[in-house]
Design a protein that fits this description.
single chain; Aspartate Aminotransferase, domain 1; Aspartate Aminotransferase, domain 2; 14 helices; alpha/beta; 17% strand; four-stranded antiparallel β-sheet; binds pyridoxal-5'-phosphate
C-alpha cells in the first residue's frame, strides 16, 4: 500500500485497544468512524482555553470562539464547494437536517403533490417524509431497486412529472455501500421543477461532494461518520431555498428583532440555527475535514478500494457466503450472510474475537424486505483499516460458520 498506514493508525488512540482480550478490529465505520487525536485535541483545546458562547459577547473569549466556529463553517464551505458560507448550516446531524427540510415543506406541499424516495434509504430519509405526507396530503412514490442493489432508473424517470415537488435519495447506501447516480437524479428532477435532497451521511467519508457541480438543493451529512464528533452535522441549503423555507425552531440567534406584536427572522445561516449550537462539535467538524483532506481523498479511495477488493475475494471463498449489493459502483461496505445462519450469531462470535461489525437491518428495513432476509452482517472499512484486519475478519467468519453450521 502506497501510504504509511502505521503512521495513520498512530493518529487513532482507540485502535490500540483490546476487546475481549483481542486487538480491536474496527469494521463498523458505516455506523460511526473513529476519531484521530487531532480532532480529540481540538475539543479539549476549546473547553480548556476559549469556551464561551458565540455571536453574542463582545469579550475576547466569545470572539475567539465565534471566529473558530465561523472558520469551521468556511472549511466546510470550501470542502463542499458551496457558493456561500451562509448556505452551510450547522445542526445536530443528518437526521435533524432531513427533518428541518421536511418540516420546512409543510406549507409548500398540497394534496396532489408528489415526492419521491428511493428503496435504498436509511429510515431517517423515509420517516420524516411519510410524516410530511400525513401533514400535507402529498403522495410518496418509491424508486424500486434491482437485485444488485442499484436503483431502477428507468422507473425513476417515469415517476417524474409536473406534480413532483421533491426527490430525496442517499448519495451512498449505508446498508449496501452502493453509489447512486445522484447527478442524473438531480438533473432529471430539476427538469420537472422538483427540488432534490441528497443524504450524504454515508458518502462524505469516501468522496468529496461538490455542491455547485451537483447543483443540488439540499445536502445533509453527519460529522461523526467523517472522523468528527457525534451530535453535529451539516445541512447545505441553496440560498434560494433559504429564503423560501420558514425557520425550523424559534429561539435565540434566529431572530432579527423581537416584540410581542411581531418577530422578524435573521438571514441564513442564523435563521435555521436557533439556540446555542454544539460549538466544540462545529469546530472539531472543521478539524476532521482538515484531517481527511491532509490525507487526501484520492489516497483514501485507493486504500478503501484495495480493502474492498481483497475482502470481497476472501469472503466469497467461504462456502455459502452471499454478498448483498454487488454493483461495481460501491464503496468499502460489505453486507453479507452465510447460508441460513442468523447475522446476529455471527456478529456475537466476531465480537468475542475483538472484531466489531454491525448486524441487523442497518436502519434500512425495506432493503432487507426486498431480499427477504432479517438482516445482514455488515463489515465497513475505513482508510485506517489494514489487509491484515481483513484476514482476521475472514478467519473469524470461517470460525463462526464452523461453530454455527
Ligand atoms: C448514518 C446515516 C444516517 C443517519 O445519520 P445520523 O448521524 O444518525 O443522523 C442517515 N442516512 C445514512 C445513509 C446514514 O448512513
Amino acid at each position: 500500500m502506497s501510504f504509511d498506514i502505521q503512521k495513520i493508525r498512530e493518529d487513532f488512540p482507540i485502535l490500540k485497544r483490546r476487546v475481549n482480550g483481542m486487538p480491536l478490529v474496527y469494521l463498523d465505520n458505516a455506523a460511526t468512524s473513529q476519531k484521530p487525536q487531532q480532532v480529540i485535541d481540538c475539543i479539549v483545546d476549546y473547553y480548556s482555553n476559549y469556551n464561551a458562547n458565540i455571536h453574542r459577547g463582545v469579550h475576547s473569549l466569545s470572539q475567539e470562539a465565534t471566529d473558530a466556529y465561523e472558520k469551521a463553517r468556511k472549511i466546510l464551505q470550501l470542502h463542499f464547494n458551496a457558493a456561500n458560507a451562509h448556505e452551510v448550516l450547522f445542526n445536530s446531524g443528518t437526521t435533524e437536517g432531513i427533518n428541518l427540510v421536511a418540516s420546512g415543506f409543510t406549507n409548500l406541499l398540497h394534496k396532489g403533490d408528489e415526492i419521491i424516495v428511493s428503496a435504498l434509504e436509511h429510515h431517517s430519509n423515509i420517516v420524516p417524509w411519510q410524516m410530511l405526507c400525513e401533514r400535507t396530503g402529498a403522495t410518496l412514490k418509491v424508486i424500486p431497486m434491482n437485485e444488485d442493489g442499484t436503483l431502477q432508473m428507468d422507473v425513476f424517470h417515469s415517476l417524474l412529472n409536473s406534480n413532483t415537488k421533491l426527490v430525496f435519495v442517499n448519495h451512498i447506501s449505508n446498508a449496501l455501500g452502493i453509489i447512486n447516480p445522484i447527478k442524473e437524479i438531480i438533473d432529471a428532477a430539476h427538469k420537472v421543477g422538483a427540488g432534490v435532497l441528497i443524504d450524504g451521511a454515508q458518502a462524505c467519508s469516501h468522496v468529496k461532494a461538490d455542491m455547485q457541480a451537483l447543483d443540488v438543493d439540499f445536502y445533509v451529512t453527519s460529522a461523526h461518520k467523517m472522523c468528527g464528533p457525534t451530535g453535529v452535522g451539516m445541512l447545505y441549503m441553496k440560498e434560494a431555498w433559504g429564503k423560501k423555507l420558514p425557520p425550523y425552531q424559534g429561539g435565540g440567534e434566529m431572530i432579527a428583532t423581537v416584540t410581542f406584536e411581531k418577530t422578524t427572522y435573521a438571514e441564513m445561516p442564523h435563521k435555521f440555527e436557533a439556540g446555542t449550537p454544539n460549538i466544540s462539535g462545529g469546530i472539531a467538524f472543521g478539524a476532521a475535514v482538515d484531517y481527511l483532506n491532509a490525507i487526501g481523498f484520492d489516497t483514501i479511495k485507493k486504500q478503501e478500494e484495495a480493502l474492498l477488493q481483497y475482502a470481497t475475494e476472501q469472503l466469497l471463498s467461504i462456502e455459502g457466503l452471499k454478498i448483498y449489493g454487488t454493483s461495481e459502483d460501491k464503496t468499502s461496505v460489505i453486507s453479507f450472510n452465510v447460508g441460513e445462519i442468523h447475522p446476529y450469531d455471527i456478529g456475537t462470535i466476531l465480537d468475542k474475537l475483538g472484531i466489531a461489525v454491525r448486524t441487523g437491518h442497518h436502519c434500512a428495513q425495506p432493503i432487507m424486505d426486498f431480499y427477504r432476509i432479517p438482516g445482514t452482517v455488515r463489515a465497513s472499512f475505513a482508510f485506517y483499516n489494514t489487509l491484515e484486519e481483513v484476514d482476521v475478519l475472514v478467519a473469524g467468519v470461517k470460525k463462526a460458520t464452523m461453530m454455527l453450521r
